[in-house]
Structure formats: structure tokens, C-alpha cells
Design goal:
Helix content is 42%, strand content 15%. It is α+β, with helices and mostly antiparallel strands. The two termini are 21 Å apart.
């Protein structure tokens, strides 16, 4: 899991990732404590290296847009 914190931010990130063709599910409160929302990634052996690289790049772009990644 990737800790995001704010539930609204996690929802925005999943929407932006989905628009980029990446499906990652947000896990909000009450499934996790308040302000501890996470993104759940489930890579499998059927994913290619290229697909995994794309997901990582999408997470970097969206994470920067949402202020989760600051550098």
C-alpha cells in the first residue's frame, strides 16, 4: 500500500491515475483510520516490465500534482 493521508486526495489520485490508464484502488476511512487513506496496488506476474514502468511513472506524475511527492 501507498500511504496518501487525506481521503479526498487519495480519491483525486485514483481518478487521475485511471484517466491515464492505470487502475489503483483507494482505501478510505472507515477501512483505514481517518487521514490514513492508502492506494492499493496489486502487481501480478502477468504484468510486463513496460506496464510496471508506466504505473511507476504515472504515480510520480500524479503524486507531484497532488503534493504527495515533493521532488
Amino acid at each position: 500500500p501507498i500511504l496518501i493521508g487525506e481521503g479526498e486526495k487519495a480519491v483525486r489520485m485514483t481518478e487521475k491515475l485511471f484517466a491515464r490508464g492505470t487502475f489503483i484502488q483507494e482505501i478510505p476511512w472507515p477501512a483505514v483510520p481517518k487521514n490514513r487513506s492508502i492506494l492499493r496496488c496489486i502487481p501480478t506476474v502477468s504484468h510486463t516490465r513496460e506496464q510496471l514502468d508506466k504505473v511507476i511513472q504515472d504515480l510520480i506524475v500524479v503524486g507531484r500534482e497532488e503534493g504527495v511527492i515533493r521532488s
